[in-house]
Amino acid sequence: MTDEENLEQAQAQIDDIEAESLSEDAAEGVAHDMEEAGELASEVAEDIKSEETGDADELDQETDDRAEMLAEDAVAAVAGDTLAEDEVRLAEEDAEASEEAAEQAEETAQAAEEEQPLDAGEQAVREFSKSLRTLDGKWYVLHTYSGYEKRVKSNIESRVASFGLEDTIFQVEVPMEEVEKHTEKGKKVITRVRIPGYVLIRMWPDENARRIVRETEGVTGFVGPTREPAPLTRKEVVQMLAPMIASEALKAAGDKPAAAKKRTLEVSYAVGDQVTVTDGPFTSMEAVVSDIEPTTQKLTVLVSIFGRDTPVELGFNQVEKLD
């Protein structure tokens, strides 16, 4: 082989070696690039996972915070309800304490008055007031149709017997009073309903019993600021029933003068009324009422005599009102 051929062969071998070297370098470069790409992909995946984990943790934290806030609101609501109940209970206790204090003061005053003689009516009212402490049930006010008070009392008592409510409803009362009416025709004593349209009932606060009472003919309902009826205090019961109790006691004792003093007086005249004299020396003269004495059925009227007002005492039946 010639030198030229040997040189060409050597150069060819060198080129092959260089080509192989370049291929290996390229392969190594590709492998390196792939390795870097893999590492980059791993880093990206880890970042994504980290972000997802962070988001999940943040969501969990928000959920926990929300749950904690709801729990705190629930606790606050329960505490508020408890506080409201406590305030209502305290208000009721204060009212009871005030009533007891008032009753004690009243009893003290009554004890001081006991040194003075009492008539039969006053004694009966005092005994009734004391008995209220031991009576079962509470006193309530029923609203009725005006003029139906006595009928309502009778109907409720019949329904109590029919429904077997003797252990729940104990007493029904229509407050009455004696009225002494004075007119030009004379004096007349009548007994009438003291508070038209209202009846007192003593009972336990039982819903079934209240329903039966409400459904009684003539009853429109219980009196109270809310759906729950409001019971009367002992003092209120005494004030509403005292005139009737005193009147009955005085009649039973035969004390007519004292009974007459307890009556409500009504006259058909009022101070300032214009009247005409119908009897006596001043007949047909006009006059003005200046004073009224129902117990004696006398009027003092001013009659104009010679231009001067002159007081004249006349009986109720000696004058007539001017229209």
From TrEMBL:
Kindly state which keywords UniProt assigns to this record, in alphabetical order.
Transcription, Transcription antitermination, Transcription regulation, Transcription termination
What broad taxonomic lineage does this protein's source fall under? Bacteria, Bacillati, Actinomycetota, Actinomycetes, Bifidobacteriales
Show the ranges annotated as biased composition (Acidic residues): 15-27, 53-63, 93-117
Q: Which gene encodes it?
A: nusG
Concerning Pfam families, the annotation shows:
NusG (PF02357)
GO terms for CC? Answer: cytosol
UniProt source species: Bifidobacterium magnum
Q: What does this protein do?
A: Participates in transcription elongation, termination and antitermination.
Region annotated Disordered, chain positions: 1-71, 89-122
Q: Is the keyword Metal-binding assigned to this protein?
A: no
Listed GO biological process terms: DNA-templated transcription elongation; DNA-templated transcription termination; regulation of DNA-templated transcription elongation; transcription antitermination
- InterPro entries per the UniProt record, alphabetical: NGN, NGN-like_dom, NGN_dom_sf, NusG-like, Rib_uL2_dom2, Transcrpt_antiterm_NusG, Transcrpt_antiterm_NusG_bac_CS, Translation_prot_SH3-like_sf
Tell me where in this chain the NusG-like N-terminal domain is found. 136-244
- The name on file for this protein is Transcription termination/antitermination protein NusG
**Family indicated by similarity:** Belongs to the NusG family.
